[in-house]
Amino acid sequence: MKTIRFGIIGCGLMGREFASAAARWCHLPEMDARPEIVAVCDANESVLDWYTDNFQTISLATGDYKQLLASDNIDAVYVAVPHNLHQQVYCDTIAAGKHLMGEKPFGIDKPANDAILAAIAQHPDVFVRCSSEFPFCPGVQRIGRMIDAGAFGRVIEFNGFFRHSSDLDPDKAINWKRMIDKNGEYGCMGDLGMHVCHIPFRAGWLPRNVRAVLSNIMTTRPDKSGKRVPCETWDNATLLCEAADGDGNLFPMTLKTQRIAPGETNSWSLEIKGTTACARFSTKNPRRLEILEYDGGEQVWGQIDTGHETAFKSITGGIFEFGFSDSILQMWAAFIHELSTGSAPSTFAACATPQETAWSHTLFTAALESQANQTVVELELT
């Protein structure tokens, strides 16, 4: 089996999730390549102990990411750092010839994203993708196959939501995701937006315009000392779009990203309505896929309990539940598979592309303009 040697830059929550997925690689019996964690980097070097305690393959633990990139012992890098650091670290990673999995939004704003895509164009031998795990849920993989087969007929409507309530507490201390200089003016759209864009973008359903309703609900939060300071990022965003399918047919698309959604822990959901079929899925009920197929008779929603039906074969029995750590493992399997073979096994068993991040930046930039001017903003996504 081919080994791909990885460094991790930014060793917080998602870095640990990747390292854990790499440790579970034997869970995927048909993979021809595997990741090996050989280097880790974080400005807070105290977090590196977890990695070095658990992974004997690590030969470099540093606070200097350029030292990591200079290592000839590294083939690929996962970067999970605050948004204001994306442009510099991503471009440096690409220039170093390291394959890159980067976190969303792939730049703090559109100029930063443009610079990252320019770096990719200058280094075509470097494989680059963006993290987005939820499409690997079994129910969504089935929906993807329905899209590929044209099962929905003409699309009537698409709704994609990512909602949680982690910021509902007004006394929760401010962190970098609530600071414009580190998170960016997109607010919740930058952090959560690719989650709701991935499926429609991959289907080729691109927004033609957007009317955004953005909300800054908690305008102050305590800092580390307990003093209340301004909290200026957007907490919630609703994007009302007119989108087009591959044939140019128009339909409404609603995309919601919400950090303050009472009753929601961390719920990602989508709904597609078409002239011949409809489908809906939510991680609130991760086994349940709802399908309505219409052929002229009664219109009846059916419920399917999906099991461990994965894009990349797993040792877990098909009757068992699929969870978040499984979706992370599947996403990384998609990255490793495409890196090592040059192709994805299917349209939706693939990671988000740099082009899809560029579309998201165009959309979110237009959403800011729409909110500021209370207008519908036209888009050209090609």
Automatic annotation (TrEMBL):
Coiled coil: none annotated. Keywords: Oxidoreductase. Residues 4-119 form the Gfo/Idh/MocA-like oxidoreductase N-terminal domain. Pfam families: GFO_IDH_MocA (PF01408), GFO_IDH_MocA_C3 (PF22725). The keyword Oxidoreductase applies. GO terms for molecular function: nucleotide binding; oxidoreductase activity. Residues 140-277 form the GFO/IDH/MocA-like oxidoreductase domain. PANTHER family: BCDNA.GH03377 (PTHR43818:SF11). This is Uncharacterized protein. It comes from marine sediment metagenome. The lineage of its organism: unclassified sequences, metagenomes, ecological metagenomes.
